[in-house]
């Protein structure tokens, strides 16, 4: 069983909520994750102190492998010279020197892709064809039964209450077709500040409609910037990948208890299984 703790959109700066941040730090060890995924927007305005605070926060998480990608808020917006010539200087200094990475395990290969576009798609993001080739090369090393996972910041599919199926990053449909060919099982992202757990076929029928790709968007884990049904709310996802099924539990913060609690669970058959064979859905 592979366990992933997926957080996103911390937004250190004026929007960060310290009470929620401390609750997340208390909850994280209880998740017993093998890997933590943080899918971008560590800061609100890509300032040095905001990155330093984000780094200090990440250092307090359990000492397991950490997969990160930058978000559009991690690139300077109003400091135009930096955005043009050094868009990732602070991200590289405080979070990770690499923008596109691969984490290999016997039971999984996780490819993290930088979907920010400081000059051409500041908010919406984009995915490049060379990054899809990068995925293909990385997944060649995946062993039998290993989960193929992609981490991005921007979304391939909008949440239902966003109401616009075209509101996705550039080349999203082309990328979904390619990732389907590569037998990717799971895409993790953020950006929307509203969790969404579903299937790529919900928004794009694709060339291969056999099973699609599980999409798990995390809401904002620690900021006031929740949107749609998660307005002013905070959430994260816990993902457990077994031999038969993938389980995703959606956690939300409750002020009444001062902590995070599960509000929904989702079960998907692993790619080789196609459908759920156990009525009790046990692993």
Explained architecture:
By secondary structure, the protein is α/β, with parallel strands linked by helices. The protein has one domain (2-269): Metallo-dependent phosphatases (Purple Acid Phosphatase, chain A, domain 2, 4-Layer Sandwich). The protein has helices at residues 18-31, 48-59, 80-85, 89-94, 129-139, 172-181; strands spanning 2-7, 35-38, 66-68, 101-104, 108-112, 147-151, 186-189, 196-199, 214-217, 235-241, 245-254, 259-269. A six-stranded mixed sheet has the order 3-2-1-10-11-12. A six-stranded mixed sheet has the order 4-5-6-7-9-8, covered by helices on one side. The longest helix is centred in the N-terminal third of the chain and has 14 residues, at 18-31. The mean pLDDT is 92.
Summarize this structure as a short list of keywords or feature phrases.
single chain; 283 residues; alpha/beta; Purple Acid Phosphatase, chain A, domain 2; 6-stranded mixed sheet; 12 strands
Please report the distance between the alpha carbons of the first and last residues.
9 Å
Radius of gyration: 18 Å
Quote the beta fraction: 15-25%
Q: In CATH's first tier, which class applies?
A: Alpha Beta
- The succession of helices and strands, N to C, reads EHEHEHHEEHEHEEEEEE
Largest sheet: 6 strands, mixed
Number of strands: 12
CATH architecture: 4-Layer Sandwich
CATH superfamily: Metallo-dependent phosphatases
Mean pLDDT: 92
CATH topology term = Purple Acid Phosphatase, chain A, domain 2
The secondary structure category is alpha/beta
Strand order of the largest sheet: 3-2-1-10-11-12
Shape: globular
Task: Give the number of helices.
Answer: 6
**Relative helix content:** 10-25%
Q: Low-confidence stretches at least 5 residues in length (pLDDT < 50)? A: none
Tally of domains: 1
